[in-house]
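User: Please predict the structure of the protein below. I'd like the answer in structure-token form so I can feed it into my own downstream comparison script.

Assistant: Understood. Taking the following sequence of 431 residues as input:
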Amino acid sequence: MNLEVYGDTLCALVSAAAMASTGHQVTLHVSPGSVANTLDSDEFTLREPGLAPLMVEQKRTGRLTVAPLNVLPDARCTVLWLALSPDALGLAHRLVEGLPADIDPEFLVVNQSTFPVGSTEALQRALLNRPGADSRFGAVVSVPDLLTEGGALTGFTRPNHWLVGADTPWASRLVAELLRPFNRRRDGIMHMRPREAEFTKLAINGMLATRLSYMNDMANLADSLDVDIERVRQGMGADTRIGEAYLYPGCGFGGLSFSRDVMSLASTLQHSGLQAQLLEEVLQINERQKESLFRKLWRHYDTQLEGRRVAIWGVAFKPESARIDNAPALKLIEALWAQGVQVHVHDPRALPALAEWAGERDDLVLHDDPYAAAAATDALMLVTEWKSYWSPDFTRLHAEMATPLLLDGRNIWDPGFVKRSGFMYYGIGRR
């Protein structure tokens, strides 16, 4: 089939590359600043595991081409695939309304964008109401983006499940055919109405955020009760009614899509005349949690922080990402700056984004080496749990630091071990 994929999102890049790899002819439409335009140059900076080689390979075979975002689909297009940013609903309507009147009877529009609930149905009406169009031709389906950054390609090619929202049987069958190469282990496609698929995606992220914030609340309570939250987490996860996923307390969650989905769900509740108290509290807990390491440092030094040097390991909103959208580290850095602290930072990928966010400052020093960032500091805060931070040379770290104080925002280190190594240690509800 001939697919025209629109969007600068990670979802668009993954979908285009994966579909091209199975034999489809794919045109990926992106804006001028998209990383996809640098596939053949040394400036290509896409860091998503496995995605860059796949995109380059598909482009070289001729199955994947890149075109501007403002170019309408080619006449040979049989599937219009929308993986646009949430603020591009207007563009989605223009693309659908700009389709020729004589499209194939089974012309398919796949909406993978995170638009408000009901947007797929609105796009369906726009498709059918085009001047001169046959109202029996074409369908818009919802296939929500369930990908997670750092594992997006695997999430598309080996998914646990797919949500497919369609109102017509032939559209459901055609989507199943498109996804067939990635749906062989078992049938993971869950069929439902379009607005049910859209709402399910938001509800999933709302539940995950709720679990994270609940565990952060429990970890803060554990601190006051002299309880180790790790034992509590293991006990909770062993209960099959609860399970282990998203029970890890920490210094808050970030990410543009995750936070935005939770806020979108809360907004949807409010606009429906319902109270969004739970989700509002979830978001408030998360914002408070982003300052948890700062509060521990504040108490340790008896509020005397001015002039101190503090190292931060990890500023990306999650491992395997170069993005810092709503990252906990940003709020933490601002709190440290407000107290006159000089901040030294290491991150495997996110330093360019941090430099752009912060601008030139004397109280921010970026390091390519984690031990250089920790040298002569009064504390080391671990904020993003990159694998390279899990087992550092604690002997070297102890020798490098002015004060051997570790604040573990992800509970990845063993408190007993690091204390025996000569460190003072604070985790999130750890003992």
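That's the full token string. Residues 324 and 357 are 9 Å apart (CA to CA).
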